[in-house]
Design brief:
It is a single chain. 30% of the residues lie in helices and 12% in strands. It is α/β, with parallel strands linked by helices. The longest helix has 14 residues. It is flat. The strands form 2 sheets. Strands 1, 4, 5, 6 and 7 form a 5-stranded mixed beta sheet that branches. A two-stranded antiparallel ribbon has the order 2-3.
Length: 282
């Protein structure tokens, strides 16, 4: 990634799906378009989407995320000579300074896409789309293929009689490669060359993840681990109102949580001057 090295342990706050767009082949896009990706229902890449699925953006509990980050920082991250040598390639460009740094715990945002993209042009396009979808509040430093779909399933569980407590979700990943080439490297080489970060990223999953496991957080007694850290009582974690999160999400787009769009959310978007449509039935 341009913003993080491939060995870091990451805690994501906002999960954005920038690929939920319409698309031109770059060879046929309008000459004044910087990219062929256009938000749904819009007429230019920089226009806020006029049609919403409701799964474009999710945000997790910030208080819990900060707690998890502090715990993860107590773990000892792994590194090796191959990874250090490869990261040096990114040191000459200040924009890639984080990519050249040693493994670390990073608090940032993540972008979801089924397409495994590479190169500066697509990277910049999806970076801009991520900012557009979140009113400029999110900057992705990792990419992945599952988070928004997983969070939508969990959100449905939360809305179905409280089967899921959405406030207890943590998004954590280790980064294993870069979405943009280093100076002098082609996009094709960046995509097809196996970078040495994969093995280190696998090692750093338990290295930073194990300290976050909180035994006894749901209360009661169990016969494994070090025993309850809360005297047998459930842990008290900050828990925001789902109703408040949904309303604020409709207003600020950062916290869209329902699919398909409900009449309540559609009405909340009316003040934005957008023509919000029910785009599909799931």
């Amino acid at each position: 990634m341009a913003h993080s090295n491939f060995d870091a342990r990451l805690g994501s706050q906002i999960q954005v799906s920038p690929k939920q767009t319409m698309n031109f082949d770059a060879r046929e896009k309008p000459a004044n378009f910087p990219t062929g990706y256009v938000p749904q229902g819009s007429f230019a890449p920089d226009q806020f989407p006029q049609e919403l699925y409701g799964t474009e953006v999710f945000e997790v509990n910030e208080d819990l995320r900060q707690f998890a980050i502090q715990m993860a920082k107590t773990g000892k991250l792994f590194d090796d000579a191959q990874s250090r040598q490869y990261r040096v390639n990114y040191a000459s460009n200040p924009a890639f300074a984080a990519g050249a740094a040693p493994p670390s715990v990073v608090a940032c945002d993540t972008a979801t896409s089924d397409v495994f993209w590479t190169g500066n042009l697509l990277g910049e396009a999806f970076e801009n789309t991520t900012k557009l979808f979140t009113n400029g509040t999110a900057t992705y430093c990792t990419t992945q293929q599952e988070d928004n779909g997983t969070l939508e399933a969990l959100m449905r569980g939360a809305l179905s009689g409280g089967l899921v407590d959405f406030s207890r979700i943590i998004i954590m990943r280790t980064a294993s490669d870069f979405d943009r080439p280093f100076p002098g490297q082609s996009a094709a080489t960046n995509l097809f060359l196996m970078s040495p970060g994969f093995d280190i990223s696998i090692q750093n999953i338990p290295a930073a993840g194990v300290p976050i496991v909180i035994f006894g957080s749901l209360g009661g007694k169990h016969d494994f681990g070090p025993g309850s850290l809360f005297g047998g009582k459930p842990a008290v974690l900050p828990k925001r109102s789902l109703r408040r999160r949904m309303c604020r999400g409709a207003i600020r787009i950062r916290r869209i949580v329902a699919t398909p769009l409900s009449p309540r959310i559609i009405s909340n978007f009316a003040h934005l001057g957008t023509d919000v449509k029910r785009t599909r039935k799931l």
